[in-house]
Amino acid sequence: MATVTRENIGLLNDKITVKVAKEDYLPSFEKALKQYSKSATIPGFRKGMVPAGMIKKMHGQSVFTDEVLRTVEKELTEYMTKENLEIFAQPLPMSENDARQLNMNNPAEYAFAFEIGLKPDFKVADLGSEKLTRYKVSVTEEMINEEEDRLRMRHGKMTEPESVAGDDNVLNVTFIESDADGNEVEGGVKKDNSLLVKYFAPSFRASLTGKKNNDSVVLTLASAFDEKEREWILGDLGFDKHDAAAAAKTFKMLITKVGHVEKAELNEEFFKAAFPGKEIANEADFRNAVKEEIQSYWDKQASNHMQHEIYHVLLDHTKIEFPETFLKRWIQQGGEQPKTAEQAEQEFPSFANQLKWTVIIDKIVREHGVEVKPEDIQAFAKQQLFGYMGMNAGDEEQPWIADYVNRMMQDRKFVEDAYHRVQTEKVFGWAETQVKPTDKPVTIDEFTKELEKHQHHHH
Fold it and tell me: Is the alpha carbon torsion for 403, 405, 406, 411 positive or negative?
């Protein structure tokens, strides 16, 4: 009769010993041998007519070992199920186990020991008592004017005048890293760009007036652009946006094309092109739609920021103890390639952090009934497709979209990935209903500074 015993060997770390007697494994060993002799193909014998003694001699020991180990595994699994043990990963066989002790000519009682890491009991951090701020970016008339301008330019008509005449000219240019005389630096940066004259610093714009195709000017980014535009250009040229040395570099800027956009008229045709699917009758409605869109964008950024804060509260303020010794052994032995103790030690902090987040998510999902349904995954697939294709929700009825979604639902990797992402989104959705943040109206600059502060703080 098999017996299973369990003893504690460390924090959330137990040893389970399974002892099996002859009567536990011999019947299945005999049965397995019979099966073997029915299917074995041995020259000189008809299939299924190989003498049992010969089978036992040739394959007996390996079949015996398999059956003993299979019986041990079955007893271990049944024990863990009956005891409701919540464990990490899989039980690890202990080093004292030795399959060489198994001898089919002398069947006996055998003992095998396993180490398990138990999942801890813990309380999720109380989100309601945390001091958090929900930022609300205030949309100004200036922001609406800028976006209106951008949309009218985007839907306007492009003409190609002879030379640069004013702030609304569009320049196609090539930035070529050079010396002070405009000679190209070997191995320097070279990059095409397209920008409006008004993006240059006011003091620099005058030097562009009258310039034609194939004219060039020598400049430093620090003198040609004010801070906001300079950061954007530095990033586009592959530098860090705060790199003062890069901003001081000299470039020859070659003008490859001068263009001018005649802004679209504020009429029904333009409103339809700018906001397809929306009923916009006049300029006031149009400006409202622009305001809603800007607000919605910044509200989403603020929600992302809030989720980032919630993530850190849950991770930093939820106290969880882990069976470290077991987990480090598991890192060493559990992968495809064995690892050294030093490697396990090095990997453990980031492994423990990920594990902590996983068990927090699992607990919230279980205790608050967070559920991901097939239709959630279908909606996710659709949303992703619309994002890639730049489509609107109004295009949903097209049959090829349903075909695409059905195809994605057959893709196991996609479904698993989508499941985790939707589940995480729903967990954050639940978490946002638990926090009691202070609302704070801010300007775009204040909010952007807040985001940057957190990026530096957390990375």
Answer: positive
